[in-house]
Amino acid sequence: MADKNQVVPQQVSILIVDDLPIVRLSLQRILTKVGYRCREAEDVPSALVVLEGDAIDLILCDIQMPGASGLDLVRAIQPRIPDTSVIMVSSLEDAETAIECLQQGAFGYVLKPFQPREILVQVNGALRRRMLEIAFRDREAQLAHKVHEQTVEIRDSREEIALRLISASEHRDNETGMHVRRIGLYAAEMARMLGWDQERIDTIQAAAPMHDIGKIGVPDAILQKPSSLTADEWVVMKKHTIMGATILKGSTVPFIRMGARIAIGHHEKWDGSGYPKGLRGEAISIEARITALVDVYDAASNRRHYKDAWPEEKVVELIRKGRGTHFDPSLVEPFLKDLERFRIILAANPDVATDEDPGI
User: Fold this and answer.
1) Active-site residue, 215 included
2) Out of 4, 215, 225, 337, which one is annotated catalytic?
3) CA 214 to each of CA 48, 180, 246, 256, 312: distance values in angstroms, whole numbers, following the listed order
């Protein structure tokens, strides 16, 4: 069986860098005799010119040259290693410098006077290592791509699970499927603005749409009432926060656990006047504080059975007035400053009719 890491000289380009023409000629004869393609440069600047224009697989470079040294060349091309392997050619007194070259990424060095067989062994070994390192890097890139694909799949699955969990309450309520999807997108954008890591951003995007899942336990007569609720009816309606948390509690799945915190806390207010517990300030989970803000923004910005959509200036004024009372002040400022981000989400995900044949 052929070795897939076998070096094929005819496919390899080597750059010989030495200020002495006789040394360059000697190395070229040794290498071309077995099929390697060779280029020459008399110093580091001319070598860099060759590297700029040609694909070079390996460099054979003298350490001591007038002007810039071989070590300077290694440093200059360090970002390209292992794409370009480097072997240093040195005299005995250059041994310490040769070792420094190795620390900078060179593969090895050959002492003068060199023997043809020694040159070929070093070149073959350096090229094989180069092939292995490039193959390893490619496998790492493929693995990273696969992990990214799986991460996206998990994120999408998580969002679908969340949307399906709330579909029962959605069909009983007057909210729309696009409303809950927008809540997830808004919350994720807010989290991104706050500098959260991607995993946490994805988690709140899946969790925030479950904020009203507890409405599945609210009677239709209250949930779909076209007029204002009585005091007793409001008592029942407010229980949807507790019911939602009860539905979601006890899970080991991070986005469902976050969903429980959002369900219980998204009607709490910064000044403590909310429900169901009357929590104040940072006693309310940050996820619930975010959801409370974007939920009000979306509800005010869209038509509901009891109201028309508000103009944006009225929505902004509502949120501004709620700063420090209803909403966390540290969230209101960035939200209003970058309102365009949320305006884009709103426009890209409009409400749609919900009476189509589900096609089941």
Assistant:
1) yes
2) 215
3) 68, 14, 8, 13, 29
CATH number for the domain running over 166-348: 1.10.3210.10
Domain map of the chain by residue range?
Answer: 9-140, 166-348
d(CA 268, CA 306) in angstroms, rounded, equals: 23
The length of the chain is: 360
Q: What is the pTM of this model?
A: 0.58
Q: Does domain 9-140 have CATH number 3.40.50.2300?
A: yes
The per-residue pLDDT for range 21-72, each reduced to its tens digit, is 999 999 999 999 999 999 999 999 999 999 988 889 999 998 888 899 888 8
Pairing relationship of beta strands 108-111 and 37-41 according to DSSP bridges: unpaired
Give the separation between CA 201 and CA 207, rounded to whole angstroms.
10
Residues near 135 by Cβ (< 8 Å), separated by ≥ 6? 5
Contact between 159 and 185 under an 8 Å Cβ cutoff? The reply is no
Give the pair of three-digit tokens for residue 17: 């860098």
